[in-house]
Design goal:
Length: about 850
């Protein structure tokens, strides 16, 4: 996903404070595999703040390894993180697997390590061996935007990216000689406690970062941050045989992982390795779309990219930010609503399947798909000059939408005016803006990344920049004025740029913007800012087309050096605030750092909401299960959150009730009688409050002014979203001796997950007429479910055996009159258990037999 750049820094090895080669050799090669050992905990001291922000340091998982990027994934209903390692991780470093939730509750714990960075490597390769990571499928994790066609289900693999020679499972001799070029390592995590590599790829551009299309879980992007020189005649020097640039790629490569996914659960490891045989497709930029006008002697590949539901792709290209339309790059194979079988168009590279070059402890039975020395036995060089000579087999159907060109690198602009190193670029959810971060100096090159509290270093401490997608350029512009036109403006007319306040002492390096995450449905950003810890930034999209940034909160643990800080769980609270749980990857690079995975919780006021705009929804029809749903098969319609209410509640006040809520539209509140005495009456309207906008205090009388009788009642809050979709909240009540009691829930709020709808028709059933208990549910994708009805105390009165149900269909089950009449009065629970692959969801509702 994201990372440092890779300048050659002689001090890196010393800065990492690594053990000696002899000590590492003893540690690594006298044992079948490196063993993870618990490390001393770092300080729990923090500096934190923000208006009405409440921070909690949940826990720290110290590893002693310098951590890089992370990605979240799900298994069996819980959330995990895979956290990468920068350079060498002597404590079984590579991908550290952490379980973040247990039965839905946040209880972080170390699970396992995949030791892809636990071997000796060349210190000059340190910043390219960053072990960036992506998991697939994405399951119920938080994505870069609301994605109604994201493939669901639990993660099957994580993909580990390296941008240098010397990775452990293809390292030649200790990473120092005969080491092949880097690429992707495909790691099976169907059992997170035993991650195991099943395949590798090697690329001319290697893989500085890796991204996976959420709706095409088999499509990965091997992303380079290569700098390719352009000579005085305008020729790219990677086209010249023998030039140092010939193995650099000014583009990206698409990797089809279909053969590595959806393998049988009981398939032996070596059989998985034999089956995993990715195809690789190369895409190379046209020169005009990526060359900054201030530095016409070089062109860059993407540093990081993002893919959206409508197939737009943003490329953070260091000196320029091109945007592509990928919709024509994939063949839907006759299933336009199912993206999981899409195939890349064009001609794949003639890669060579070979054995790993590693020896000793890191020898592996996983094959390497070599796209550097391709052809049978590695007989065909796929370096750029020879690739061109064999016809340049490429990915087809990619369309260049336009580019933003930056002026900070080698140009006249400081960090308050332009970008030096475009690290990451993302659309806002409205589609009205593109946000890009400026990793000054690549994070490690003074003075670009230096900072101090005493005076503002405007050459350093890069920030977040906003651009207008409707002002992208087709080619390199003639000068600064045309480039500046792409900038969004704030409400004061200035370029829309946010830079974090400096709250720590002076640093020569790692004091600048890095990895960021937008929370879907909110104009709120969480991001790692190196020594400035976690920054939370809100932004408001104004009706006049401007955008304003505002610091919402910050969290800086002692000696923080956060590569990444991402949220894995979020919830809205009854008072309208939001609580977020996040995790960081923290590393030590000499000046400071914790070499730990920190987990935090923060409660914040509600953020600004996205404005209306073109959005990012797919152009093709969606047969998908919504973000976090169980897959794109099964007949489920696109899931659009029907949400106008931020909160709703019923409170008692003696014989009266108070109805309170926060909503984005006027609300109608209805009170229905459900049962009286021994009779279930159905929905008999007692009182209605139309189009109210604030708290309603009700005196307990019906619409004719009469006091109510004892019995069971239902309160319904109803509003509509801005899209006109109904949004409702219901509460069951019991009135006894003139006083009300709120009942346990008889329905769960609709979601975009696997269990989309789950409710009982009424909070009561039975009575003298034996009213049935009606149960209804809908899934986002085909799934197996069983339902158990129990009387309070645990006795089962009805069991609906587990069976397969179609997705997108409203299903009903009921306790019929004959059974209901035999049941005693009292409380009953209804529990559904849903299984989709290895994931299990359970939810319980309650109703009363009257």
């Amino acid at each position: 996903m994201r990372s440092l750049l890779r300048p050659t820094i002689a001090a890196v090895l010393a800065a990492l404070a690594l053990p000696s080669a002899a000590a590492l050799a003893h540690e690594l090669f006298d044992h079948p595999a490196p063993v993870f050992r618990a490390q001393p905990a770092p300080s729990r001291a923090i500096a934190s703040g923000g208006q009405n922000a409440t921070w909690e340091f949940v826990t720290s998982i110290p590893t002693g390894n310098p951590h890089s990027d992370l990605d979240f994934f799900t298994r069996d209903g819980d959330v995990y993180a895979a956290v990468g390692t920068l350079a060498i991780g002597p404590n079984a470093g590579g991908q550290t697997i952490v379980k973040l939730t247990d039965d839905g509750e946040v209880r972080p714990s170390f699970v396992a390590s995949h030791p892809s960075a636990a071997c000796i490597s060349n210190p000059n390769a340190a910043l390219g061996l960053q072990h960036d990571v992506e998991a697939t499928p994405k399951g119920g994790t938080i994505l870069n935007t609301f994605n109604p066609v994201a493939a669901g289900g639990d993660a099957q693999v994580i993909v580990d990216a390296t941008d240098q020679r010397g990775r452990c499972h293809d390292q030649g001799t200790l990473g120092l000689s005969a080491a092949p070029r880097g690429g992707l390592e495909i790691v099976d995590v169907t059992n997170p406690a035993a991650p195991k590599e099943i395949g590798l790829t090697s690329h001319v551009g290697e893989a500085h970062t890796v991204n996976i299309d959420p709706k095409r879980p088999h499509i990965a992007y091997a992303v380079t941050s290569d700098t390719v020189s352009v000579n005085t005649s305008g020729q790219r020097e990677n086209e010249i045989a023998g030039d140092d640039d010939q193995f650099d790629l000014d583009g990206f490569e698409v990797v089809d992982l279909s053969s590595c996914l959806n393998l049988p659960a009981d398939m032996p490891l070596q059989a998985k390795r034999d089956a995993c045989n990715p195809q690789v497709f190369r895409y190379r930029f046209d020169l005009a779309m990526e060359m900054p006008h201030t530095v016409k002697s070089a062109v860059n590949g993407c540093h990081e990219l993002e893919i959206y539901p409508n197939d737009l792709l943003t490329c953070a290209g260091i000196g320029a930010m091109p945007v592509f339309d990928m919709s024509g790059a994939f063949d839907d194979r006759g299933t336009p609503d199912d993206y999981t079988d899409d195939k890349p168009r064009g001609t794949p590279l003639p890669c060579n399947r070979r054995r790993s070059s590693s020896q000793g402890a890191f020898a592996t039975g996983a094959a390497v798909i070599d796209c550097v020395d391709g052809g049978p036995g590695g007989s065909v060089s796929l370096a750029i000059p020879n690739w061109l000579s064999i016809g340049a087999p490429s990915l087809a159907g990619v369309r260049h939408v336009g580019t933003v060109f930056h002026q900070g690198r080698g140009g006249p602009r400081d960090s308050t005016q332009d970008i030096d190193v475009n690290h990451e670029a993302e659309y806002t959810q409205s589609g009205n803006f593109i946000l890009a971060t400026d990793e000054r100096g690549g994070g490690v090159t003074p003075p670009g990344a230096s900072c101090t509290q005493v005076s503002d270093n405007r050459s350093g401490n890069g920030g977040i920049h906003a651009f207008r997608p409707d002002r992208l350029l087709a080619a390199t512009p003639p000068g600064p004025a045309e480039t500046d036109a792409a900038y969004a403006r704030d409400s004061k007319g200035n370029k829309a740029i946010y830079r974090a306040p400096v709250r720590t002492g002076a640093q020569a390096t790692v004091c600048t913007a890095h990895v960021f995450q937008q929370i879907p449905g909110q104009n709120r950003i969480f991001m790692g800012w190196y020594s400035q810890g976690t920054q939370v930034v809100d932004f408001t999209e104004n009706p006049d087309g401007t955008i304003d940034f505002k610091e919402a909160a910050w969290f800086v643990p002692a000696d923080a050096n956060e590569w990444v800080s991402h949220v894995f769980k979020a919830q809205e609270n009854p008072d309208g605030t939001f609580t977020y749980w996040g995790a960081t990857g923290d590393f030590n690079l000499g000046e400071r750092g914790r070499n730990a995975i920190d987990v935090y919780r923060v409660t914040l006021p509600a953020p600004p909401k996205p404005a209306s705009g073109p959005g990012l929804l797919p152009r093709r029809g969606a047969d998908g299960g919504g973000q976090g749903a169980g897959g794109t098969q099964g007949g489920a319609p696109p899931c659009v959150p029907a949400r106008s209410f931020r909160s709703a509640a019923v409170r008692r006040a003696g014989r009266r009730l108070t109805f309170s809520f926060r909503a984005d539209a006027p609300v109608t509140i209805d009170l229905f009688q459900q049962a009286r005495g021994g009779r279930v009456t159905g929905e008999r309207l007692i009182r209605r409050f139309r189009n109210v906008s604030g708290t309603v205090r009700w005196n307990g009388r019906d619409r004719r002014g009469r006091r109510l009788t004892d019995g069971y009642y239902l309160v319904r809050f109803a509003a509509r979203t801005s899209a006109g979709i109904p949004d409702e909240r219901r509460f069951g009540l019991l009135r006894r001796n003139g006083r009300f009691r709120i009942l346990h829930r008889h329905e769960r709020r609709d979601t975009c997950g696997l269990l989309r709808r789950w409710k009982l028709y009424r909070p009561v059933f039975g009575g003298v007429t034996g009213r049935p208990l009606v149960i209804s549910f809908r899934f986002g994708a085909e799934a197996t479910a069983g339902i158990v009805v129990r009387r309070a105390g645990g006795r089962v009165v009805r069991r609906f055996a587990a069976r397969r149900y179609a997705g997108g269909v409203l299903h009903r089950r009921r306790l019929n009159r004959n059974l209901v009449r035999r049941l005693p009065r009292g409380q009953y629970t209804v529990t559904i258990t849903v299984r989709d692959g290895s994931r299990t969801i359970r939810s319980t509702l309650r109703a009363t037999r009257v």
